[in-house]
Every structure is written in C-alpha cells, then in structure tokens.
Write the structure tokens for this entry.
Amino acid sequence: MSLIDIHTHQKTDSPTALCAIYSNFEQVDAVGIHSVGLHPMMVQNYDAIAIKSAFGAMRQDTVWAIGEVGLDKRNKEHWDLQVALFQQQITIANTLQKPLIIHCVQALDACLLYLRAAQVPVIFHGFRKGLPVAQKILQQSYYISFGSALLKDAALQNCFKSIPLHQLFLETDDAPITIDALYETAANLLQTEIENVILPIQENFKRVFKLA
Ligand SMILES: [Zn+2]
C-alpha cells in the first residue's frame, strides 16, 4: 500500500490519496478516491443546482468520504447557512455510511456539538492547534490529521508527539509539498523508523474505510 494522504486538493489517481472536491462536483470521476463536501467558507456561493450536484456526487462509488465540511468563524456572516449545511451533510454521511472530513476554524465547540449526530468515523483535517484542543477531539474517538504546518511549526510539532498513532492521519491539503516529506518529519519527531508511522496510519485507513 502506498502512503496514505487523507486530504489533498491535487488531482491524483492514487488509491491512497483522498482527493477533496468542493466545487465543480461533476469532476468526480471513476479513477482515484475522493471526498465531496460543501465547504464552510463557500456556503454562500452554492446555488440549488450545485448543492444537488454535490449531494449526487456523494453517492458515487469513488467518493469514500463526505468533506471537507464543518464550520468556520471567519465566515460568520453566513453562520446559519453553515450550520444548516453541516447538519444536512452529517445526515448524508450517516445514510451513506461514509466518514466525515472536518474543516473547523475557531468553532470547535459548535463542531463537536453538531457532530454528536454523526454515526460514522470523523477526521479533523489540517490540525494546527495545541494539545488541549487536540484532547477534546481525541476524547470523542475522532481522528486528527496534520498537514504542512507540521513541517515548520515548533509548537505544533510538540503537540504532535502526544497524539496517539491510532488516531492520526497526515495530509498535503493544498500545500506544494509531498506526502513523503510529512511522513519523514513525523518519524523524525517521534524518533522512530518511518514504518512505525506508515503502518499505524494504514491501519487507521483500513479501519475508517472498512477495508479488509
Ligand atoms: Zn482542504
């Protein structure tokens, strides 16, 4: 199995890189694996046709997860719409039994509140906060995914060392980096062999997506 990248915006046909789509939902195709979601920063831009197209795309076989979805305080002008669409997409994730990829900015308590309705695995992507925030997420048995910030943010690197491997993912998101660089950094931080990062994340991937 190649390296798991749980959240990328690069078009890829890798079977282990989850390509996140938040617009032009017809671009979901038969190759690769995808997550599809109405992005919290863009809720005001989706018209009825786009929403219908997103919900349709979520049903496709190559769409393995719903996301990125969630709440972002920077878009508080459209907060009510964010909440409504977040709740709707949690319901869809439950119906389709597909995991949720969460985008959460300055809205952790609200995200956790609405996620009580979720009956699928939950992954918080692009984590860049401290250990107290991480612990609130981990306590719910959710997963935390780290991206490019892990390469250079010393405080985040310190927090990373306390994250249990069985709740961890790595991601490139929209950063111009390779997923290899993240695995290497993670192994260095944990002072271990890279296999000791690769294997637990593969296990997490299999557990979350119910692979044999
Ligand atoms: Zn993203």
The chain has one domain: 5-207. The mean pLDDT is 96. The pocket of zinc ion is lined by residues 7, 9, 20, 68, 173-174 (CB under 6 Å).
